[in-house]
Specification:
- The protein has 542 residues and is mainly beta.
- The chain has three domains: 87-274, Beta-galactosidase, Chain A, domain 5 (Distorted Sandwich); 287-366, Immunoglobulin-like; 373-541, Jelly Rolls (Sandwich), CATH 2.60.120.260.
- The longest helix is centred in the middle third of the chain and has 4 residues, at 267-270.
- Residues 469-490 are annotated as: Disordered.
- Pfam families: CBM-like, fn3_3, RhgB_N.
Length: 542
Protein backbone atom coordinates (compact mmCIF):
# COMPACT_ATOMS: atom_id res chain seq x y z
CA UNK A 1 0.00 0.00 0.00
CA UNK A 2 1.17 3.56 -0.57
CA UNK A 3 2.53 5.44 2.37
CA UNK A 4 1.27 8.86 3.50
CA UNK A 5 2.84 11.63 5.46
CA UNK A 6 0.68 14.02 7.48
CA UNK A 7 1.66 17.29 9.10
CA UNK A 8 -0.52 18.08 12.10
CA UNK A 9 1.67 19.57 14.80
CA UNK A 10 2.47 22.91 13.23
CA UNK A 11 3.01 26.16 15.15
CA UNK A 12 0.33 28.71 14.25
CA UNK A 13 1.13 31.21 11.48
CA UNK A 14 4.22 29.31 10.31
CA UNK A 15 3.62 28.02 6.77
CA UNK A 16 5.11 24.62 5.94
CA UNK A 17 5.40 23.38 2.37
CA UNK A 18 4.90 19.67 1.80
CA UNK A 19 6.97 18.16 -1.01
CA UNK A 20 7.28 14.41 -0.43
CA UNK A 21 6.73 12.37 -3.59
CA UNK A 22 5.22 8.95 -2.93
CA UNK A 23 4.09 6.14 -5.19
CA UNK A 24 0.43 5.28 -5.77
CA UNK A 25 -0.38 1.83 -7.01
CA UNK A 26 -2.18 1.96 -10.36
CA UNK A 27 -5.95 1.73 -10.01
CA UNK A 28 -5.95 2.01 -6.19
CA UNK A 29 -7.92 4.92 -4.69
CA UNK A 30 -6.36 6.96 -1.92
CA UNK A 31 -7.71 5.89 1.48
CA UNK A 32 -8.95 8.42 4.00
CA UNK A 33 -6.31 9.93 6.24
CA UNK A 34 -6.64 9.69 9.97
CA UNK A 35 -5.72 13.25 10.94
CA UNK A 36 -5.74 16.83 9.73
CA UNK A 37 -2.87 17.31 7.31
CA UNK A 38 -1.49 16.99 3.81
CA UNK A 39 0.36 14.23 2.02
CA UNK A 40 1.29 13.22 -1.47
CA UNK A 41 0.63 9.99 -3.30
CA UNK A 42 1.92 9.79 -6.85
CA UNK A 43 0.42 12.71 -8.73
CA UNK A 44 -2.08 13.47 -5.98
CA UNK A 45 -1.86 15.95 -3.13
CA UNK A 46 -4.11 14.53 -0.41
CA UNK A 47 -5.83 16.88 2.05
CA UNK A 48 -7.48 15.57 5.23
CA UNK A 49 -9.78 18.16 6.78
CA UNK A 50 -9.59 16.52 10.20
CA UNK A 51 -13.36 16.02 10.01
CA UNK A 52 -15.13 13.60 7.64
CA UNK A 53 -13.77 14.96 4.37
CA UNK A 54 -10.64 13.99 2.46
CA UNK A 55 -9.98 15.42 -0.99
CA UNK A 56 -7.22 15.08 -3.57
CA UNK A 57 -5.75 17.60 -6.01
CA UNK A 58 -3.92 16.52 -9.16
CA UNK A 59 -0.40 17.92 -8.80
CA UNK A 60 -0.05 18.17 -12.58
CA UNK A 61 -3.00 20.45 -13.37
CA UNK A 62 -4.69 21.61 -10.13
CA UNK A 63 -7.92 19.65 -10.66
CA UNK A 64 -9.77 18.17 -7.69
CA UNK A 65 -9.88 14.46 -8.56
CA UNK A 66 -11.34 12.98 -5.39
CA UNK A 67 -13.79 14.11 -2.70
CA UNK A 68 -14.41 11.46 -0.06
CA UNK A 69 -17.03 12.42 2.51
CA UNK A 70 -17.86 9.91 5.25
CA UNK A 71 -15.85 7.35 3.24
CA UNK A 72 -18.06 7.82 0.16
CA UNK A 73 -16.52 9.09 -3.07
CA UNK A 74 -18.56 12.02 -4.37
CA UNK A 75 -16.42 12.93 -7.39
CA UNK A 76 -17.99 11.83 -10.68
CA UNK A 77 -17.02 8.56 -12.34
CA UNK A 78 -16.26 10.34 -15.63
CA UNK A 79 -12.68 11.26 -16.43
CA UNK A 80 -13.07 15.03 -15.98
CA UNK A 81 -11.98 16.62 -12.72
CA UNK A 82 -13.51 19.45 -10.72
CA UNK A 83 -11.73 22.64 -11.68
CA UNK A 84 -11.63 26.30 -12.56
CA UNK A 85 -12.92 27.13 -16.06
CA UNK A 86 -12.42 24.04 -18.24
CA UNK A 87 -9.23 23.15 -16.40
CA UNK A 88 -5.80 24.76 -16.31
CA UNK A 89 -4.17 22.14 -18.52
CA UNK A 90 -0.97 22.21 -16.49
CA UNK A 91 -0.15 24.02 -13.27
CA UNK A 92 2.45 24.40 -10.57
CA UNK A 93 0.86 22.99 -7.40
CA UNK A 94 1.98 23.77 -3.84
CA UNK A 95 0.54 22.76 -0.47
CA UNK A 96 1.13 24.41 2.93
CA UNK A 97 -0.21 24.39 6.45
CA UNK A 98 -0.70 27.68 8.28
CA UNK A 99 -1.87 26.96 11.81
CA UNK A 100 -5.24 25.25 11.53
CA UNK A 101 -5.58 25.89 7.81
CA UNK A 102 -4.29 24.05 4.74
CA UNK A 103 -3.72 26.02 1.54
CA UNK A 104 -3.22 24.26 -1.79
CA UNK A 105 -2.40 26.58 -4.68
CA UNK A 106 -2.34 25.82 -8.41
CA UNK A 107 -0.66 28.44 -10.59
CA UNK A 108 -0.96 28.63 -14.37
CA UNK A 109 0.17 31.81 -16.10
CA UNK A 110 -1.14 34.76 -14.10
CA UNK A 111 -4.01 32.75 -12.56
CA UNK A 112 -3.80 31.13 -9.13
CA UNK A 113 -6.49 28.76 -7.88
CA UNK A 114 -6.59 28.19 -4.11
CA UNK A 115 -8.12 25.24 -2.23
CA UNK A 116 -8.38 25.85 1.51
CA UNK A 117 -9.23 23.38 4.27
CA UNK A 118 -10.04 24.53 7.80
CA UNK A 119 -9.30 22.00 10.52
CA UNK A 120 -12.45 20.19 11.66
CA UNK A 121 -14.72 21.42 8.86
CA UNK A 122 -16.32 19.45 6.06
CA UNK A 123 -15.60 22.10 3.47
CA UNK A 124 -13.29 22.98 0.60
CA UNK A 125 -12.98 26.75 0.57
CA UNK A 126 -11.64 28.36 -2.57
CA UNK A 127 -10.42 31.62 -4.04
CA UNK A 128 -9.31 32.48 -7.56
CA UNK A 129 -6.81 35.20 -8.36
CA UNK A 130 -7.52 36.00 -12.01
CA UNK A 131 -5.96 39.32 -13.05
CA UNK A 132 -7.14 38.78 -16.64
CA UNK A 133 -9.92 36.86 -18.34
CA UNK A 134 -9.00 33.37 -19.48
CA UNK A 135 -9.05 32.62 -23.24
CA UNK A 136 -12.21 30.54 -22.79
CA UNK A 137 -14.00 33.84 -22.11
CA UNK A 138 -15.51 33.03 -18.72
CA UNK A 139 -14.49 32.37 -15.14
CA UNK A 140 -16.24 29.63 -13.21
CA UNK A 141 -15.56 26.74 -10.88
CA UNK A 142 -17.37 23.47 -11.61
CA UNK A 143 -17.54 20.57 -9.16
CA UNK A 144 -18.31 17.35 -11.03
CA UNK A 145 -20.22 15.11 -8.65
CA UNK A 146 -21.60 11.58 -8.86
CA UNK A 147 -25.19 11.91 -10.04
CA UNK A 148 -26.16 8.51 -8.61
CA UNK A 149 -25.24 9.72 -5.12
CA UNK A 150 -26.39 13.33 -5.59
CA UNK A 151 -29.35 13.29 -8.02
CA UNK A 152 -31.37 16.24 -6.71
CA UNK A 153 -30.90 19.98 -7.31
CA UNK A 154 -32.32 22.91 -5.37
CA UNK A 155 -33.41 24.64 -8.57
CA UNK A 156 -34.93 22.22 -11.07
CA UNK A 157 -35.21 21.26 -13.86
CA UNK A 158 -31.48 21.38 -14.64
CA UNK A 159 -31.19 18.18 -16.67
CA UNK A 160 -29.57 17.95 -20.10
CA UNK A 161 -31.03 14.48 -20.65
CA UNK A 162 -33.63 15.10 -23.35
CA UNK A 163 -33.97 16.39 -26.90
CA UNK A 164 -31.84 19.46 -27.57
CA UNK A 165 -34.05 22.24 -28.93
CA UNK A 166 -31.76 25.28 -28.70
CA UNK A 167 -28.00 25.69 -28.64
CA UNK A 168 -27.36 22.21 -27.20
CA UNK A 169 -28.13 23.64 -23.76
CA UNK A 170 -31.96 23.72 -23.70
CA UNK A 171 -33.78 20.39 -23.75
CA UNK A 172 -37.30 19.07 -24.30
CA UNK A 173 -38.39 16.45 -21.78
CA UNK A 174 -40.82 13.63 -22.66
CA UNK A 175 -43.71 15.27 -20.79
CA UNK A 176 -43.44 18.50 -22.80
CA UNK A 177 -41.59 20.47 -20.13
CA UNK A 178 -38.25 22.05 -20.95
CA UNK A 179 -35.01 21.90 -19.00
CA UNK A 180 -31.67 23.68 -18.98
CA UNK A 181 -28.72 24.40 -16.73
CA UNK A 182 -29.68 28.07 -17.14
CA UNK A 183 -32.96 27.44 -15.31
CA UNK A 184 -30.99 26.57 -12.16
CA UNK A 185 -29.91 30.21 -11.76
CA UNK A 186 -30.90 32.68 -9.05
CA UNK A 187 -30.09 36.36 -8.66
CA UNK A 188 -26.66 36.91 -7.09
CA UNK A 189 -28.14 38.87 -4.19
CA UNK A 190 -30.38 35.87 -3.34
CA UNK A 191 -27.81 33.15 -3.88
CA UNK A 192 -25.64 32.66 -0.82
CA UNK A 193 -25.61 28.89 -1.33
CA UNK A 194 -27.02 26.43 -3.84
CA UNK A 195 -26.51 22.71 -3.96
CA UNK A 196 -27.25 19.14 -4.92
CA UNK A 197 -28.30 16.30 -2.64
CA UNK A 198 -29.08 12.63 -2.23
CA UNK A 199 -29.90 10.19 0.53
CA UNK A 200 -28.08 11.39 3.65
CA UNK A 201 -25.71 13.67 1.78
CA UNK A 202 -25.61 17.13 0.21
CA UNK A 203 -22.97 19.36 -1.33
CA UNK A 204 -23.52 23.11 -1.39
CA UNK A 205 -21.70 25.85 -3.25
CA UNK A 206 -21.03 28.85 -1.03
CA UNK A 207 -20.84 31.83 -3.37
CA UNK A 208 -19.22 34.11 -0.82
CA UNK A 209 -17.84 37.51 -1.73
CA UNK A 210 -19.10 38.56 -5.19
CA UNK A 211 -17.19 41.86 -5.30
CA UNK A 212 -15.14 40.81 -8.34
CA UNK A 213 -18.05 39.22 -10.21
CA UNK A 214 -19.98 41.13 -12.89
CA UNK A 215 -23.58 42.02 -13.62
CA UNK A 216 -24.79 43.51 -10.36
CA UNK A 217 -27.18 42.22 -7.70
CA UNK A 218 -29.84 40.92 -10.12
CA UNK A 219 -27.54 39.05 -12.49
CA UNK A 220 -27.87 35.29 -12.40
CA UNK A 221 -25.93 32.44 -13.92
CA UNK A 222 -25.79 28.66 -14.05
CA UNK A 223 -25.87 26.90 -10.67
CA UNK A 224 -26.20 23.20 -11.56
CA UNK A 225 -26.49 20.82 -14.50
CA UNK A 226 -27.56 17.19 -14.36
CA UNK A 227 -26.16 14.77 -16.93
CA UNK A 228 -26.47 10.99 -17.15
CA UNK A 229 -23.37 10.43 -14.99
CA UNK A 230 -22.52 13.77 -13.37
CA UNK A 231 -24.25 16.46 -11.37
CA UNK A 232 -22.29 19.63 -12.06
CA UNK A 233 -22.27 22.24 -9.29
CA UNK A 234 -21.13 25.69 -10.47
CA UNK A 235 -19.88 28.96 -9.13
CA UNK A 236 -19.87 31.47 -11.97
CA UNK A 237 -17.74 34.56 -11.45
CA UNK A 238 -17.97 35.84 -15.02
CA UNK A 239 -19.63 34.84 -18.28
CA UNK A 240 -21.25 36.49 -21.29
CA UNK A 241 -24.62 34.92 -20.44
CA UNK A 242 -26.76 38.05 -20.96
CA UNK A 243 -23.95 40.01 -19.35
CA UNK A 244 -24.15 43.78 -18.85
CA UNK A 245 -20.65 44.46 -17.48
CA UNK A 246 -17.01 43.81 -18.28
CA UNK A 247 -14.83 41.26 -16.50
CA UNK A 248 -13.35 42.37 -13.18
CA UNK A 249 -9.85 41.07 -12.56
CA UNK A 250 -8.40 40.26 -9.16
CA UNK A 251 -9.03 37.86 -6.29
CA UNK A 252 -12.46 36.22 -6.52
CA UNK A 253 -13.70 34.67 -3.30
CA UNK A 254 -13.72 33.25 -0.76
CA UNK A 255 -16.26 30.71 -2.07
CA UNK A 256 -16.41 26.98 -1.43
CA UNK A 257 -17.92 23.50 -1.37
CA UNK A 258 -19.74 22.58 1.85
CA UNK A 259 -20.50 18.93 2.65
CA UNK A 260 -23.40 17.90 4.91
CA UNK A 261 -25.59 14.95 5.83
CA UNK A 262 -28.37 16.43 3.72
CA UNK A 263 -29.15 19.30 6.05
CA UNK A 264 -28.40 22.97 5.38
CA UNK A 265 -24.81 24.13 5.94
CA UNK A 266 -23.91 25.01 9.50
CA UNK A 267 -23.08 28.55 10.57
CA UNK A 268 -19.48 27.40 11.08
CA UNK A 269 -19.25 26.19 7.48
CA UNK A 270 -20.59 29.52 6.22
CA UNK A 271 -18.03 31.48 8.24
CA UNK A 272 -14.92 32.45 6.27
CA UNK A 273 -13.55 34.94 8.79
CA UNK A 274 -10.53 32.66 9.35
CA UNK A 275 -9.21 33.65 5.91
CA UNK A 276 -6.70 36.43 6.52
CA UNK A 277 -3.39 37.80 5.30
CA UNK A 278 -1.40 34.98 6.96
CA UNK A 279 -2.65 32.56 4.29
CA UNK A 280 -0.77 34.46 1.59
CA UNK A 281 -3.55 34.69 -1.00
CA UNK A 282 -2.42 36.99 -3.80
CA UNK A 283 -4.66 40.05 -4.09
CA UNK A 284 -6.15 39.58 -0.62
CA UNK A 285 -7.35 42.80 1.04
CA UNK A 286 -8.04 42.62 4.80
CA UNK A 287 -10.94 44.32 6.56
CA UNK A 288 -8.58 47.04 7.77
CA UNK A 289 -8.04 48.11 4.17
CA UNK A 290 -11.74 48.46 3.44
CA UNK A 291 -14.45 51.04 4.10
CA UNK A 292 -18.23 51.22 4.29
CA UNK A 293 -21.20 53.23 3.02
CA UNK A 294 -24.36 53.98 4.97
CA UNK A 295 -27.30 56.33 4.75
CA UNK A 296 -30.97 56.67 3.98
CA UNK A 297 -33.01 56.20 0.80
CA UNK A 298 -36.56 57.21 0.00
CA UNK A 299 -39.21 57.51 -2.67
CA UNK A 300 -39.41 53.82 -3.56
CA UNK A 301 -42.99 52.62 -4.07
CA UNK A 302 -44.61 50.93 -1.05
CA UNK A 303 -44.20 47.18 -1.18
CA UNK A 304 -41.13 47.37 -3.40
CA UNK A 305 -37.66 46.57 -2.02
CA UNK A 306 -35.15 49.42 -2.05
CA UNK A 307 -31.84 47.97 -3.25
CA UNK A 308 -28.61 49.97 -3.18
CA UNK A 309 -25.84 49.04 -5.60
CA UNK A 310 -22.22 50.22 -5.82
CA UNK A 311 -20.01 49.57 -8.81
CA UNK A 312 -16.81 50.59 -10.52
CA UNK A 313 -14.39 48.81 -12.83
CA UNK A 314 -12.80 46.92 -9.94
CA UNK A 315 -15.66 45.89 -7.64
CA UNK A 316 -19.40 45.72 -6.97
CA UNK A 317 -21.51 45.64 -3.80
CA UNK A 318 -25.15 45.84 -2.78
CA UNK A 319 -27.51 45.98 0.17
CA UNK A 320 -31.25 46.20 0.79
CA UNK A 321 -32.61 49.07 2.86
CA UNK A 322 -34.71 48.27 5.92
CA UNK A 323 -38.33 49.31 6.37
CA UNK A 324 -37.24 52.78 7.43
CA UNK A 325 -35.03 53.28 4.36
CA UNK A 326 -31.74 52.91 6.21
CA UNK A 327 -28.95 50.84 4.67
CA UNK A 328 -25.31 49.88 5.17
CA UNK A 329 -22.77 48.36 2.79
CA UNK A 330 -19.64 47.02 4.50
CA UNK A 331 -16.31 45.59 3.35
CA UNK A 332 -15.96 47.97 0.40
CA UNK A 333 -12.66 48.39 -1.40
CA UNK A 334 -11.46 52.01 -1.44
CA UNK A 335 -12.30 53.96 -4.57
CA UNK A 336 -14.86 56.01 -6.47
CA UNK A 337 -18.18 54.28 -7.08
CA UNK A 338 -21.36 54.83 -9.03
CA UNK A 339 -24.18 54.37 -6.56
CA UNK A 340 -27.65 53.33 -7.76
CA UNK A 341 -30.98 53.09 -5.97
CA UNK A 342 -33.27 50.41 -7.39
CA UNK A 343 -37.01 50.07 -6.99
CA UNK A 344 -36.78 46.30 -6.90
CA UNK A 345 -34.73 46.01 -10.15
CA UNK A 346 -35.53 49.37 -11.75
CA UNK A 347 -32.89 52.07 -11.31
CA UNK A 348 -34.60 55.20 -9.96
CA UNK A 349 -31.69 57.36 -8.71
CA UNK A 350 -27.91 57.58 -9.04
CA UNK A 351 -24.97 59.47 -7.61
CA UNK A 352 -21.21 59.13 -7.16
CA UNK A 353 -19.50 58.37 -3.87
CA UNK A 354 -15.93 58.03 -2.61
CA UNK A 355 -14.99 55.24 -0.20
CA UNK A 356 -11.84 55.31 1.96
CA UNK A 357 -10.20 52.56 4.00
CA UNK A 358 -11.23 52.49 7.64
CA UNK A 359 -14.02 55.05 7.16
CA UNK A 360 -17.76 55.09 6.56
CA UNK A 361 -19.06 57.31 3.77
CA UNK A 362 -22.60 58.62 4.15
CA UNK A 363 -24.96 59.02 1.21
CA UNK A 364 -28.67 59.63 0.75
CA UNK A 365 -30.66 58.86 -2.38
CA UNK A 366 -34.22 59.81 -3.32
CA UNK A 367 -36.07 58.08 -6.13
CA UNK A 368 -36.62 60.39 -9.09
CA UNK A 369 -40.32 60.76 -9.87
CA UNK A 370 -41.10 60.99 -13.58
CA UNK A 371 -43.28 63.96 -14.56
CA UNK A 372 -46.99 63.78 -15.31
CA UNK A 373 -50.18 62.22 -13.99
CA UNK A 374 -50.72 58.55 -14.79
CA UNK A 375 -53.98 58.03 -16.67
CA UNK A 376 -53.65 54.25 -16.63
CA UNK A 377 -50.91 51.75 -15.99
CA UNK A 378 -50.28 48.08 -16.79
CA UNK A 379 -47.88 46.47 -14.33
CA UNK A 380 -45.61 48.13 -11.78
CA UNK A 381 -42.37 49.84 -12.84
CA UNK A 382 -39.90 47.60 -10.99
CA UNK A 383 -37.51 46.30 -13.66
CA UNK A 384 -39.27 42.92 -13.98
CA UNK A 385 -42.27 41.45 -15.84
CA UNK A 386 -43.81 40.30 -12.55
CA UNK A 387 -47.54 39.60 -12.84
CA UNK A 388 -47.61 39.36 -16.64
CA UNK A 389 -48.53 36.18 -18.49
CA UNK A 390 -45.95 33.42 -17.92
CA UNK A 391 -43.60 35.71 -16.01
CA UNK A 392 -43.55 33.07 -13.27
CA UNK A 393 -42.56 30.27 -15.68
CA UNK A 394 -39.98 32.01 -17.86
CA UNK A 395 -37.14 31.91 -15.27
CA UNK A 396 -37.31 28.10 -15.29
CA UNK A 397 -38.66 27.11 -18.70
CA UNK A 398 -38.19 27.74 -22.41
CA UNK A 399 -41.02 29.75 -24.01
CA UNK A 400 -41.88 26.68 -26.15
CA UNK A 401 -42.63 24.68 -22.98
CA UNK A 402 -45.99 22.87 -23.14
CA UNK A 403 -47.24 24.94 -20.21
CA UNK A 404 -47.06 28.17 -22.25
CA UNK A 405 -49.11 29.23 -25.26
CA UNK A 406 -48.25 32.55 -26.90
CA UNK A 407 -50.49 34.61 -29.17
CA UNK A 408 -51.26 38.26 -29.85
CA UNK A 409 -53.25 39.79 -27.00
CA UNK A 410 -55.84 42.54 -26.69
CA UNK A 411 -55.77 44.06 -23.22
CA UNK A 412 -58.68 46.24 -22.12
CA UNK A 413 -57.82 48.84 -19.50
CA UNK A 414 -60.12 48.53 -16.51
CA UNK A 415 -61.34 44.98 -17.16
CA UNK A 416 -58.50 42.72 -18.31
CA UNK A 417 -56.41 40.92 -15.71
CA UNK A 418 -52.73 41.77 -15.44
CA UNK A 419 -51.87 38.14 -16.13
CA UNK A 420 -53.48 38.38 -19.58
CA UNK A 421 -50.79 40.77 -20.81
CA UNK A 422 -47.66 39.03 -22.17
CA UNK A 423 -44.37 39.12 -20.29
CA UNK A 424 -42.57 38.98 -23.65
CA UNK A 425 -43.47 40.05 -27.16
CA UNK A 426 -41.68 38.45 -30.13
CA UNK A 427 -42.14 39.99 -33.55
CA UNK A 428 -42.61 36.59 -35.20
CA UNK A 429 -44.67 34.97 -32.44
CA UNK A 430 -47.20 37.23 -30.69
CA UNK A 431 -47.15 40.67 -32.32
CA UNK A 432 -48.94 43.03 -31.97
CA UNK A 433 -50.00 43.66 -28.40
CA UNK A 434 -53.16 45.76 -28.37
CA UNK A 435 -54.34 48.03 -25.57
CA UNK A 436 -57.94 49.25 -25.66
CA UNK A 437 -59.07 52.16 -23.48
CA UNK A 438 -61.73 54.85 -23.42
CA UNK A 439 -61.50 58.62 -23.13
CA UNK A 440 -64.34 61.01 -22.33
CA UNK A 441 -64.56 63.97 -24.69
CA UNK A 442 -63.08 66.37 -22.15
CA UNK A 443 -59.96 64.19 -21.78
CA UNK A 444 -59.01 63.99 -25.44
CA UNK A 445 -55.63 65.68 -25.44
CA UNK A 446 -51.97 64.85 -25.96
CA UNK A 447 -50.52 62.06 -23.81
CA UNK A 448 -47.17 60.42 -23.30
CA UNK A 449 -46.88 56.65 -23.52
CA UNK A 450 -44.11 55.08 -21.47
CA UNK A 451 -42.95 51.52 -22.09
CA UNK A 452 -40.44 50.14 -19.58
CA UNK A 453 -38.29 47.35 -21.07
CA UNK A 454 -35.71 45.50 -18.91
CA UNK A 455 -34.38 43.27 -21.73
CA UNK A 456 -34.57 43.03 -25.51
CA UNK A 457 -33.03 40.72 -28.08
CA UNK A 458 -32.29 41.11 -31.78
CA UNK A 459 -32.10 44.93 -31.52
CA UNK A 460 -35.85 44.95 -30.87
CA UNK A 461 -37.65 48.06 -29.67
CA UNK A 462 -41.34 48.91 -29.47
CA UNK A 463 -43.04 50.94 -32.18
CA UNK A 464 -46.62 52.04 -31.64
CA UNK A 465 -49.63 52.96 -33.71
CA UNK A 466 -52.78 54.66 -32.41
CA UNK A 467 -56.26 54.04 -33.77
CA UNK A 468 -54.74 52.81 -37.05
CA UNK A 469 -54.19 56.40 -38.14
CA UNK A 470 -51.05 57.59 -36.36
CA UNK A 471 -47.68 55.87 -36.14
CA UNK A 472 -45.06 56.68 -33.58
CA UNK A 473 -41.39 57.11 -34.54
CA UNK A 474 -39.01 54.17 -34.69
CA UNK A 475 -36.78 54.36 -31.60
CA UNK A 476 -33.02 54.00 -31.86
CA UNK A 477 -31.60 50.51 -31.44
CA UNK A 478 -31.13 49.70 -27.74
CA UNK A 479 -27.95 48.84 -25.89
CA UNK A 480 -28.61 45.32 -24.68
CA UNK A 481 -26.59 42.11 -24.18
CA UNK A 482 -25.81 40.35 -27.45
CA UNK A 483 -26.33 36.80 -26.20
CA UNK A 484 -29.54 34.86 -25.58
CA UNK A 485 -31.44 35.80 -22.46
CA UNK A 486 -35.20 35.27 -22.64
CA UNK A 487 -34.90 31.61 -23.65
CA UNK A 488 -32.21 31.12 -21.00
CA UNK A 489 -34.52 32.13 -18.18
CA UNK A 490 -33.61 35.76 -17.60
CA UNK A 491 -35.48 39.01 -18.14
CA UNK A 492 -32.57 41.12 -16.95
CA UNK A 493 -30.53 43.32 -19.28
CA UNK A 494 -30.23 47.10 -19.41
CA UNK A 495 -33.40 48.86 -18.24
CA UNK A 496 -34.65 51.02 -21.11
CA UNK A 497 -37.51 53.53 -21.01
CA UNK A 498 -39.28 54.30 -24.29
CA UNK A 499 -41.40 57.46 -24.32
CA UNK A 500 -43.71 58.45 -27.16
CA UNK A 501 -45.74 61.66 -27.23
CA UNK A 502 -49.15 60.94 -28.76
CA UNK A 503 -50.84 64.02 -30.24
CA UNK A 504 -54.46 64.83 -29.43
CA UNK A 505 -55.31 64.42 -33.12
CA UNK A 506 -54.51 60.70 -32.89
CA UNK A 507 -57.07 60.15 -30.12
CA UNK A 508 -60.85 60.33 -29.97
CA UNK A 509 -63.73 60.42 -27.53
CA UNK A 510 -64.82 56.89 -26.69
CA UNK A 511 -62.85 53.83 -27.68
CA UNK A 512 -59.14 54.04 -28.51
CA UNK A 513 -56.56 51.41 -29.38
CA UNK A 514 -52.78 51.42 -29.11
CA UNK A 515 -50.92 48.69 -30.96
CA UNK A 516 -47.37 47.82 -29.96
CA UNK A 517 -45.23 46.38 -32.73
CA UNK A 518 -41.56 45.41 -32.85
CA UNK A 519 -38.99 47.32 -34.91
CA UNK A 520 -35.75 45.55 -35.77
CA UNK A 521 -33.49 44.89 -38.73
CA UNK A 522 -32.85 41.32 -37.57
CA UNK A 523 -34.75 38.37 -39.10
CA UNK A 524 -37.39 36.34 -37.30
CA UNK A 525 -36.22 33.02 -35.89
CA UNK A 526 -38.81 31.48 -33.61
CA UNK A 527 -38.21 32.34 -29.97
CA UNK A 528 -34.87 33.88 -30.94
CA UNK A 529 -36.74 36.48 -33.01
CA UNK A 530 -36.46 40.16 -32.10
CA UNK A 531 -38.34 40.53 -28.82
CA UNK A 532 -38.86 42.78 -25.82
CA UNK A 533 -39.64 41.97 -22.21
CA UNK A 534 -42.30 44.20 -20.66
CA UNK A 535 -41.80 45.72 -17.23
CA UNK A 536 -44.80 48.08 -17.31
CA UNK A 537 -46.69 50.53 -19.53
CA UNK A 538 -48.09 53.94 -18.57
CA UNK A 539 -50.24 56.51 -20.31
CA UNK A 540 -49.40 59.87 -18.77
CA UNK A 541 -50.92 63.33 -18.96
CA UNK A 542 -48.23 66.01 -18.78
Amino acid sequence: MPCFRTLTRVPRNRPHTFACALLLYAGVSAPALADFGISRSGDRVIVDSGAELVFAVDARNGDIVSMRYRDNELQTTESKGSHIASGLGSASVDARIVGGTIVVSAKAGDLVQYYIARKGRNAIYMATDAPSLMPVGELRFVARLNVSTLPNAQQEPDSNVGKAIEGNDVFLLPDGRTSSKFYSARRMMDDQVHGVSGSGVAVFMLTGNRERSAGGPFFKDIATQKTSVTHELYHYMYSDHTQTEAFRGGLHGVYGLLFTDGSSPSSAQLDTAFVDATLGLSGYLPASGRGAVSGHVGGVLPGQPAVIGLRNAQAQYWATADGSGDYQVTGVRPGSYRMTLYQNELDVAQRNIEVSAGATAHAALQAVVLPGTVKWQIGIPDGTPAGFRYADLLPRAHPSDARMHWSAVTYTVGSSSLSSFPAVQWRGINTPSRIDFTLPANEVRGYRLRIFVPLAQGSARPQISVNARWNGPVPAAPTQPKTRGITRGTARGNNTLYEVDIPASALQAGNNRIEIGIASGSPDNGYLSPAIVFDSIQLVAL
